[in-house]
Amino acid sequence: MINGIEISHGNMCLEMLTLIPGTYLIIPNFFHCCDWFRRKVVNIYEVPTAIYDSIAVIARSPNLRNLTLTVVDNLFNQQKAQILYEVISGSTIRGLTFINMAKNFDYNGKQYSEFENNIKPIREISRIRSDIRWQAAINPGYSGSDY
Known about the structure:
The protein is built from 6 helices and 6 strands; from the N terminus they run E-E-H-H-H-E-H-E-H-E-H-E. By secondary structure, the chain is α/β, with parallel strands linked by helices. The two termini are 22 Å apart.
């Protein structure tokens, strides 16, 4: 598992100040569905592009057939997907599992909204069976609350 570098620390106090009135009034609970609110209360992580580049060293192994990558990267974007595509397409890998366990919302662009479009070239590599998803979850070293 590759945990990204924490680039923004969430505000748990703000989350609690929203949950408490939310027990009496329904409106504050809707904030939990909004990206602007999540950007304020959730820890934000980024895996540097150099880490995705370094995966190429592992992928060049001639005996490697299956690769499982689990990352926590709120800023997974088209550039990182392209690096991953180049690494996988130039390898002998036949099975790929890629799971991004970051919270599922757009941070400062359309990282989450464009995820399916960004990884589409990887899915289209015919020789590879893949399971690629952005699946928010709590894991060791990852703090924050699940909505």
